[in-house]
Amino acid sequence: MKKCMLIFCFLTATASAKAQWRLQIQTGPSFSLRSQNTDSLFASKNQAFHAQAAVRYDWGHLGLSLTLGYLQQNRRSDANINRPPAFLSGIDAHQVAGGGVKAVYLLAGPEFCFACGPKFKFNVGIRAGVSFVEKNTFQLLDQNAVEYENQLQSKTPFTFNTGLAAHYFFDEHWAVGLMADYHHFCLKATNRDKRNGINNLIQLKQSKDFLNLGLGVTYKF
Fold this sequence. Notes:
The chain has one helix spanning 2-16; strands at residues 19-32, 47-59, 62-73, 95-97, 101-116, 120-133, 137-142, 145-152, 158-169, 174-193, 201-220. By secondary structure, it is mainly beta. A hairpin with a 4-residue loop joins strand 9 (158-169) and strand 10 (174-193). It is elongated.
């Protein structure tokens, strides 16, 4: 009963605080937390790029955010030199088509804001939702014959994102900030491999884990 009363008092206090809308735009590099070696599912680089826009509604220290973002992880530039499935031997001349990952994500979740003086504010957020992944096919060909292929099956995988940010307010409305987020989703693909018979389909799975680092601009209404 006491715990319920404390929770009720906390919610009442935060709801009675001055509510504020905030619009935040963020962009910067992303770094894969999983090694993208030559056997990587989509021959992707270790580095990626992300950009996102978020709308947040705050009651005191508690807020709720809605985030729309984009993440692009390109194919490695050496994919045509070092064949992605390194265990495929006996291919003298090969070429790679497709590869990499592009995703638009939509996330929502709570934000917790802490002030450190009149100018500095810090927030921690937990967000979840879905990613809309471009249906991309990765192929390794030898003299135009398909030797290895991954066809993406994940269209809207569950996506999780959590992170923190520090903002400096120049005035009552405008701020610049630094952000760091952990970003996760999982991809599934149908694999065709010449060694198993090119028409023999196998399901493959790969987790995508990123550290998103960004610079942002915030406008407080």
